[in-house]
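Progress note, sequence design subtask.
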């Protein structure tokens, strides 16, 4: 019995589409990370002041909403760079604070960057090569992020060092899980929009880096 060519081409077309999304995601992610590093460098060079946390949250969620609405148009690309550039700029004053406060501040920043890179590349490679489905982690991760976010908001008012440490640890572990989850989504076709995939991975890297930096500051910082 002759096989239907249309049936044979469907898996191939699906695989090609998935590979295209993965390729475009990592290309755009690389570009946004470079742009974010540039805006962070500008903020550091100009000694930009630390922005109010509510302004940061407002800017982040506003630009995130705009990116989601524009995800299927060319304006979505502009929105992605606006979001990641803004987040990079907010990172500049934080890096200056660590470098100025700790005698080994530059080393802490370098270790955090290196650790973030190793963790992201390692977990992403694992998910891409094994092609395991980590979708089962979705509910747990979303619940954990909500709890950690609310705990972080509470710490803004109470300023408890122990709570800040717990929140940073939670975020670091949750971001590791999200790397596996989001990469698995890309591999198995759960995410078909490379703009949204890029934003998700960028936010993961941003939170992983800042959480790791705070933990290193607590345990390895030299005043």
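Output:
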């Amino acid at each position: 019995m002759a096989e239907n060519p249309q049936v044979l081409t469907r898996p191939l077309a699906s695989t090609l589409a998935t590979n295209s999304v993965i390729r475009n995601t990592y290309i755009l992610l690389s570009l946004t990370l470079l742009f974010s590093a540039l805006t962070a460098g500008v903020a550091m060079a100009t000694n930009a002041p630390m922005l109010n946390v509510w302004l940061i949250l407002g800017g982040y969620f506003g630009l995130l909403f705009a990116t989601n609405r524009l995800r299927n148009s060319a304006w979505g690309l502009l929105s992605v760079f606006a979001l990641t550039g803004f987040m990079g700029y907010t990172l500049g004053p934080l890096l200056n604070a660590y470098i100025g406060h700790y005698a080994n501040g530059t080393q802490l920043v370098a270790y955090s960057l290196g650790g973030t890179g190793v963790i992201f590349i390692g977990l992403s490679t694992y998910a891409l090569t094994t092609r395991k489905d980590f979708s089962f982690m979705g509910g747990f991760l979303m619940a954990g992020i909500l709890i950690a976010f609310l705990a972080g908001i509470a710490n803004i008012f109470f300023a408890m060092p122990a709570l800040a440490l717990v929140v940073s640890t939670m975020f670091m572990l949750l971001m590791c899980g999200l790397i596996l989850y989001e990469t698995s989504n890309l591999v198995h076709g759960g995410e078909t929009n490379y703009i949204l995939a890029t934003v998700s991975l960028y936010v993961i890297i941003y939170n992983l880096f800042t959480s790791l930096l705070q933990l290193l500051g607590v345990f390895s910082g030299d005043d």
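The first helix runs from residue 5 to 45. Work on this subtask will continue into the next period as scheduled.
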